[in-house]
């Protein structure tokens, strides 16, 4: 195995790791916006602010206290 082939294998491995985790990038965005992932409609007194798991479930947020 030459160095070039080894580097290509590492590059492909890292590429597939990033692609496989792309479904959960919206989960991270939801959490950063102080939301939570919830299947089905958002609970009472919460607002839908996005999606989680690549659009499969809702990202909901509680209203902020004033």
TrEMBL record:
The keyword Hydrolase does not apply. One of its GO terms (cellular component) is extracellular space. It comes from the Eukaryota. The chain crosses the membrane at residues 6-25. InterPro entries: Defensin_beta-like (IPR001855). It is found in: Cytoplasmic granule; Secreted. Residues 26-61 form the Beta-defensin-like domain. Pfam families: Defensin_beta. PANTHER family: BETA-DEFENSIN 1, BETA-DEFENSIN-RELATED. This is Beta-defensin-like domain-containing protein. It comes from Pelusios castaneus (West African mud turtle).
């Amino acid at each position: 195995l030459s160095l070039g082939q080894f580097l290509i294998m590492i590059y492909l491995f890292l590429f597939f790791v990033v692609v496989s985790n792309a479904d959960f990038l919206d989960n991270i965005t939801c959490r950063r916006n102080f939301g939570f992932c919830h299947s089905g409609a958002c609970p009472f007194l919460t607002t839908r602010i996005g999606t989680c798991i690549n659009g499969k479930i809702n990202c909901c947020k509680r209203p902020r206290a004033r």
